[in-house]
Design brief:
alpha/beta; Alpha-Beta Plaits; six-stranded mixed beta sheet; 37% helix
């Protein structure tokens, strides 16, 4: 899915629905979290990123009150972490692997959870119908869940996470297994829910384009500590301000690496095996990208054209969240 920087702006000056300060967690002699600190505002979507073993799962388990931190604290809508029962009434969770009772209808399923949260039967049904409309399943209210596609079940899972009108929702890989259209539709639904319901959303995903496309903020974890956080565009700009990207035919990658590396003031040229033909060209730190981006573009195009290497694409600003992620987690990946 291609990143879209034109998504609806998040509301400003909203209340702090999740405040995390100095969370630490040990597993034996290994420190899984090293002072996790961040704030989530109402109506904003925060991407939660990190390679396997970075501490994402531990963080979510702590913040959803499944386990306790060894140090630090957090609040959900002002409720302290040492009151887990109250916090659970303020949060919604869509786990990566959510099981569904196949012989229940969609409305029966949501009514059941509504009553678990203390709603009277009629109120639970009214709430269920409202939520099915919110997630676009209003025409399948009486359909058995066994007849639902994977995408429909994910929508139903989001509806279940919203049953108690939470202030914070945790979504773990919500688009896993969906086709590109299904991914896009579900992500736009998540963003709309955050905006319209003023819900803070924590979105865990390995699909970096998803985070870049709809998230307002991002946190990148590596070896249990935060290595980058802030607004998505800000994180990309801060880390990748001196990087441009160019695409050439895969058979010309090796030659292009040599040619581009010889350009003055180019610090490093690298290729991404997972993105065939794409090269990242990094300027030396002392070169101001704002003033040199045009010169860099001209130099790249000139050396490739003179060598009769087709230039299939060029990104003048160069920054992608994937580039930032790979750069900041390089030690772990190695």
């Amino acid at each position: 899915m291609k990143s879209n920087n034109n998504h609806t702006a998040a509301p400003k000056d909203q209340r702090e629905v999740l405040v995390v300060e100095g969370i630490q967690k040990m597993y034996g002699n290994r420190r899984a979290l090293k002072g996790l600190t961040f704030t989530l505002l109402a109506g904003r979507v925060m991407g939660f990123l990190g390679p396997n073993g970075a501490g994402k799962t531990t963080s979510i388990r702590i913040l959803t009150t499944i386990m306790e931190p060894d140090a630090g604290h957090f609040t959900v809508d002002g409720i302290e972490f040492d009151q887990p029962e109250k916090i659970r009434r303020k949060i919604g969770v869509l786990p990566e692997n959510l099981g569904f009772p196949r012989q229940m209808t969609a409305v029966e399923y949501l009514v059941y959870f509504g009553q678990l949260y203390g709603l009277p039967p009629q109120s639970a049904k009214t709430n269920a119908m409202r939520l099915l409309n919110v997630v676009g399943l209003e025409n399948r209210t009486k359909s058995l869940i066994s007849s639902f596609s994977h995408g429909m079940r994910q929508r139903l899972g989001i509806a279940r996470a919203l049953v108690n009108n939470p202030v914070v929702v945790f979504l773990d890989e919500p688009t896993l297994g969906l086709d590109p259209r299904g991914q896009q539709e579900l992500l736009l639904l998540i963003q709309r829910i955050a905006r319209e319901h003023q819900t803070g959303v924590i979105l865990c995903s390995h699909m970096l384009s998803e985070i870049e496309g709809i998230c307002d903020d991002v946190i990148i974890l590596s070896s249990g500590q935060v290595v980058a956080q802030g607004a998505v565009n800000s994180v990309i700009g801060d880390i990748q301000r001196n990087i441009a990207r160019v695409r050439v035919p895969p058979e010309n990658v090796d030659t292009s690496l040599e040619l581009l590396s010889a350009i003055p003031n180019v610090f490093k040229v690298s290729s991404d095996p997972q993105m065939r033909g794409w090269l990242s060209v990094e300027l030396a730190d002392f070169i101001a990208a704002d003033s040199q981006s045009g010169n860099l573009r001209n130099a790249i195009l000139k050396v490739l054209i003179q060598s009769e290497i087709p230039v299939l694409s060029y990104e003048a600003e160069g920054g992608r969240l994937q580039d930032v992620f790979l750069q900041l987690t390089e030690e772990v990946i190695k």
